[in-house]
């Protein structure tokens, strides 16, 4: 058997020398020639770097918003604690100490401490969004699970539930975080309808297929949201209720943002609130 040196069909060509193009031939506006693989690698590196920079900027901006919110919210109970402490000291330092007034002040201090602790816990819930655990799922299945979790609340508040689930296509998302999102929206709607009267509260949940994703709509027949507050409600610690810290809808926005979706509020046909969110088929 002939080897490559003996075969008449085999010709060893010398390795081409590196090309050196004359300066007169190379266009002055063109970069030096390089291998296509180098271009692809550099392009991928640039995209990855840009994505990393965007994620870092987004995270810093969110943390700045949360920091400003917590600074404002914690100042209120701290000022109350300081005022009640000073008043309690004055009651106790009188010639005839007024113990009852001092005890009342101490109770207010305890309440202020509890509120400050709750604010810190709420901030932790906002900042502690775990990395997405992505899997293929059906959004309608997640909605049914969320309804099952909130069914005791719906029954206790005598809320009539109407659903229209029409999405058959699958999406890639985090089932646990989407469930948290829907539970928050349902709970918020039920609380908003607390003053509707016996058997008058109606909650509607619908899902739709979009060209490149899905949309979910949760609406109630409560008092609704004024137009100038429909963006504010998704901010951390914003609330119009006498109880609660106003982090439920902020968490909802955080979940939707993590899935590269969008969420917004509008008026429902009955004058109540309608919260809509859209998610892409795949969020990565």
Automatic annotation (TrEMBL):
- Which SUPFAM superfamilies does UniProt cross-reference here? ATPase domain of HSP90 chaperone/DNA topoisomerase II/histidine kinase, Homodimeric domain of signal transducing histidine kinase
The record ties this protein, via InterPro entries, to:
HATPase_C_sf, HATPase_dom, His_kinase_dom, HisK_dim/P_dom, HisK_dim/P_sf, Sig_transdc_His_kin-like_C
Keyword vocabulary terms for this entry: ATP-binding, Kinase, Nucleotide-binding, Phosphoprotein, Transferase, Two-component regulatory system
Q: What class of enzyme is it?
A: transferase
UniProt keyword annotation of Phosphoprotein present: yes
Q: Which GO terms describe its molecular function?
A: ATP binding; phosphorelay sensor kinase activity
Enzyme nomenclature, EC number: 2.7.13.3
Keyword Transport assigned: no
Question: Could you tell me the superkingdom of the organism this chain comes from?
Answer: Bacteria
Q: What is this protein called?
A: histidine kinase
Source organism (scientific name): Pseudomonas graminis
């Amino acid at each position: 058997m002939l080897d490559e040196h003996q075969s008449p069909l085999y010709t060893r060509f010398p390795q081409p020398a590196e090309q050196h193009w004359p300066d007169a031939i190379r266009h002055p506006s063109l970069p030096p020639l390089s291998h296509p693989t180098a271009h692809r690698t550099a392009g991928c590196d640039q995209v990855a770097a840009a994505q990393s920079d965007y994620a870092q900027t987004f995270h810093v901006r969110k943390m700045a918003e949360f920091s400003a919110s917590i600074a404002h919210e914690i100042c209120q109970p701290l000022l109350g604690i300081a005022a009640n402490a000073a008043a309690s000291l004055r009651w106790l330092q009188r010639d005839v100490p007024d113990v009852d007034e001092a005890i009342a002040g101490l109770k207010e201090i305890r309440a202020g401490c509890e509120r400050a602790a709750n604010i810190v816990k709420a901030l932790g819930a906002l900042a502690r969004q775990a990395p997405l655990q992505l899997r293929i799922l059906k959004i309608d299945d997640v909605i049914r699970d969320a309804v099952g979790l909130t069914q005791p609340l719906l029954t206790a508040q005598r809320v009539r539930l109407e659903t229209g689930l029409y999405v058959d296509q699958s999406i890639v998302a985090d089932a646990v975080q989407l469930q948290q999102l829907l539970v928050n929206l349902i709970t918020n709607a039920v609380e908003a309808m607390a003053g509707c009267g016996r058997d008058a509260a109606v909650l509607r949940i619908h899902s739709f297929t979009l060209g490149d994703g899905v949309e979910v709509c949760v609406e109630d027949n409560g008092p609704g949201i004024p137009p100038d507050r429909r963006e504010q409600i998704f901010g951390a610690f914003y609330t119009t209720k006498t109880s609660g810290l106003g982090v439920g809808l902020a968490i909802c926005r955080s979940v939707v943002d993590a899935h590269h979706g969008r969420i917004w509020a509008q008026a429902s046909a009955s004058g109540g609130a309608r919260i809509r969110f859209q998610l892409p088929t795949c969020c990565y």
